[in-house]
């Protein structure tokens, strides 16, 4: 599990939807707004299944209809390829759940 360098993280973000890199917290982060609370819960559940299969888990924070995903590799104290891959899967599930963006 190799940490990505600055260049690799910046490049990786160009292939993702609205993720931002928080260097201080060693994570990438995306917030999405769903129509309502239950849609947000369904989205989180779908992501939980994918995360469990990948054995790589995002931190997910839900406030009514807003969900924030925090992605980092705890064991490596930073961002790895696993984080980029899971972020891409999260983007797909968000796009499926929220077709109009
Ligand atoms: C033992 C097992 O591989 C781990 O504890 C996994 C599970 N999911 C994980 N998820 C994330 N995001 N970072 C980790 O370091 C991590 N470790």
Automatic annotation (TrEMBL):
Report the EC number(s), separated by commas if there are several: 4.2.1.96
GO biological process annotation, one example: tetrahydrobiopterin biosynthetic process
Alphabetically sorted, this entry's keywords are:
Lyase
Q: What is this protein called?
A: Putative pterin-4-alpha-carbinolamine dehydratase
Classification via InterPro entries: PCD_sf (IPR036428), Pterin_deHydtase (IPR001533)
Catalytic activity reported: (4aS,6R)-4a-hydroxy-L-erythro-5,6,7,8-tetrahydrobiopterin = (6R)-L-erythro-6,7-dihydrobiopterin + H2O
Keyword presence, Lyase? yes
Homology family = Belongs to the pterin-4-alpha-carbinolamine dehydratase family.
GO molecular function ontology, one term from the record: 4-alpha-hydroxytetrahydrobiopterin dehydratase activity
Q: Which Gene3D superfamilies match?
A: Transcriptional coactivator/pterin dehydratase
* Lyase found in the keyword field: yes
Source species: Nocardiopsis gilva YIM 90087
Q: HAMAP family in the record, alphabetically?
A: Pterin_4_alpha
Offer one Pfam family short name for this entry: Pterin_4a
